[in-house]
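Review form for a predicted model. The reviewer records the input and the model, then writes brief findings.
Reviewer: anonymous (R2)
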Amino acid sequence: MTIRTRVENPADAPATRRVHMAAFPGPEEADLVDALRRDSAWIPALSLVAVDDRDLIVGHVLLTRLRVGDGDGLSMAPVAVAPEWQRKGVGAALVRAALAAAETAGERLVVVLGDPDYYGRFGFEPASRHRISGPFEAPDAYFQALPLPGYDGGPHGVCRYPAPFAEV
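Model under review:
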């Protein structure tokens, strides 16, 4: 079977929630996605799903608006793949598609908190190299940034995540 990525439709929300519930040990990530859908940080064109040959949703990635110092950037979180599709390239396809969509939308910067070995292959590097920091304690290698082609050295400063991140 093969997968393809596409923008999530409103009708996909229940299937997307099922993927998050299956991919993570608790409901926190699924609840976060639901809360972000109701927040001004939500960017519908930057919520993408992976679907299999039967058009079943097998993965999801979300980019939402966040503040970086006095400017704007994007947060990549969460990324989820149904357990039976993990380690088959679905997550990588979603990340690549999300970054391409962000670039096409004219965005300048994406941050992620995650495994540097995994996200490094997409070009992410420690955010501190761009004078960007997170609002929480995290090892430097794990709080990462990816400047997109429109990046001109800014924004920089402390990231402020949308309110739903603090609620779940």
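Findings: The radius of gyration is 15 Å.
Further findings: The helical segments are 13-23, 28-37, 90-104, 116-120, 164-167.
Recommendation: see findings above.
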